[in-house]
């Protein structure tokens, strides 16, 4: 796929997978948890409206499965 000329944003860009994606797509806009909480629909909508991406790569995830609660796991991992 041709990525040049495309606006690409990467949610979860500071995580393990997100960092790898950013290395592969250095022109993409990195969106970290500090910039947008993926569990907050209003923040997600605002971020999408601000960047108007052609492509969204969602690497945001909860990786601590010890006791986060099913709602938190679903809210982030099933965005």
Q: What share of residues is helical?
A: 25-40%
β-strand amount = 5-15%
Biggest sheet, spatial arrangement of strands: 2-1-3
Please report the total strand number as a whole number. 3
Shape: globular
Output mean pLDDT: 86
N/C terminus separation: 23 Å
Write down the secondary-structure element order.
EHEHEH
Q: Describe the main β-sheet briefly.
A: 3 strands, parallel
Radius of gyration: 13 Å
Assembly state: single chain
Question: Uncertain runs with pLDDT below 50, 5 residues or more?
Answer: none
Structural class: alpha/beta
Number of helices: 3
Summarize the structure.
The chain has 79 residues and is α/β, with parallel strands linked by helices.
What does this structure look like?
- By secondary structure, this protein is an alpha/beta fold.
- It has three helices and three strands.
- Helix content is 35%, strand content 14%.
- A three-stranded parallel sheet has the order 2-1-3, with helices on one face.
- The longest helix has 11 residues, at 41-51.
- The protein is globular.
- The two termini are 23 Å apart.
- The model has no long low-confidence stretch (mean pLDDT 86).
């Amino acid at each position: 796929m041709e990525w040049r000329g495309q606006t690409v944003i990467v949610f979860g860009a500071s995580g393990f997978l997100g960092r790898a994606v950013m290395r592969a797509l250095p022109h993409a806009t990195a969106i970290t948890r500090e910039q947008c909480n993926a569990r907050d629909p209003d923040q997600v909508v605002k971020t999408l409206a601000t960047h108007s991406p052609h492509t969204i790569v969602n690497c945001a995830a909860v990786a601590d499965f010890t006791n986060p609660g099913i709602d938190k796991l679903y809210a982030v991992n099933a965005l």
